[in-house]
């Protein structure tokens, strides 16, 4: 009986053989398993590139991978309790019903005058000559000047719209190279009208839009870019008002189903436009140059 108990209590040992390749196999290191004291060599691109400038060399900076801390969904739902030492006790004034006077507060905010747009004078070699020119127009307290990073463009910030207009008139009359932006109060609200025939009478369209509360500055028919044929699209410029967005709600115009939508921005580069972007080309008074080579537009003739 005792011998049987001894045989049952003795554990059985199993021998396992480990192959040698399990210890000699190379292990691939990932970014997370690399040691912290390892130094990554900086990679240079200017050695093998023959077209690279000798004065320029780009390098990849060393970057360490940061571990993103993740929280379990159970801990995210738990709100932190605020440790407040004082507790508010709700109170009620029993004499509030005796107060019949209504508290009147003036919530009217004073409207701020619109700020003028800055004026950029290009190719400035002598700032004193520009300052003397501004003295002929206004005083020193009516504007602020600063020089941009390029070093040859001076930014003039007028104090109000009147000073802005007087400076622009003087620069245009004296043929001073500069550019600016249209005032926000003068910018038209442009929309695209789809669905009208190209032969539609624009004066009648203006009257219909005026009856709906929209004052139209101009309506221009859109033509094909290459064929120059009229298309069933119109550019409608509205006077800036608070109800300009209501024009998108109009679905019918002169017994025709139409669609009003915002215009698309031009993405192509226009050759020889004198650095004039489509949105402010009328406010640019710089000499005409080719945008591809920087020379005058007729240099190839």
From TrEMBL:
Compositionally skewed regions (Polar residues) per UniProt: 45-59
Source domain of life is Eukaryota
List the InterPro entries hit by this protein, alphabetically: Pre_C2HC_dom (IPR006579)
Q: Where is this region: Disordered?
A: 42-86
Which residue range or ranges hold the Pre-C2HC domain? 202-270
Which lineage ranks, top first, belong to the organism behind this chain?
Answer: Eukaryota, Metazoa, Ecdysozoa, Arthropoda, Hexapoda
Give the protein's recorded name: Nucleic-acid-binding protein from transposon X-element
Question: Corresponding gene?
Answer: ORF1
Pfam families attached here? Answer: PRE_C2HC
């Amino acid at each position: 009986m005792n011998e049987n108990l001894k045989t049952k209590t003795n554990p059985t040992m199993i021998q396992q053989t480990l192959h040698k390749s399990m210890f000699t196999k190379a292990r691939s290191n990932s970014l997370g398993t690399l040691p912290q004291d390892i130094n990554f060599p900086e990679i240079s691109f200017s050695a093998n590139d023959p077209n690279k400038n000798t004065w320029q060399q780009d390098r990849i900076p060393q970057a360490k991978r940061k571990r993103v801390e993740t929280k379990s969904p159970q801990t995210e739902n738990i709100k932190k309790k605020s440790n407040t030492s004082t507790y508010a006790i709700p109170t009620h004034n029993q004499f509030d019903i005796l107060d019949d006077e209504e508290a009147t507060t003036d919530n009217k905010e004073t409207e701020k005058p619109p700020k003028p747009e800055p004026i950029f004078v290009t190719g400035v070699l002598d700032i004193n000559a520009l300052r003397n020119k501004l003295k002929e127009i206004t005083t020193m307290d009516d504007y602020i000047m600063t020089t941009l990073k390029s070093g040859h463009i001076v930014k003039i910030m007028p104090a109000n719209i009147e000073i802005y207009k007087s400076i622009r008139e003087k620069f245009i009359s004296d043929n001073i190279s500069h550019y600016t932006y249209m005032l926000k109060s003068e910018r038209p609200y442009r929309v695209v009208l789809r669905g009208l025939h190209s032969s539609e009478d624009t004066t009648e369209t203006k009257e219909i839009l005026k009856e709906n509360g929209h004052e139209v500055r101009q309506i221009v028919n859109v033509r094909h870019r290459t064929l120059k044929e009229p298309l069933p699209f119109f550019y409608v410029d509205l006077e800036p008002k608070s109800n300009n967005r209501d024009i998108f709600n109009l679905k019918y115009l002169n017994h025709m189903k139409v669609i009003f939508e915002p215009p698309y921005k031009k993405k192509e580069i226009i050759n020889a436009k004198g650095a004039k972007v489509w949105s402010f080309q009328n406010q640019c008074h710089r000499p005409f140059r080719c945008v591809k080579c920087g020379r005058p537009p007729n240099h190839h003739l």
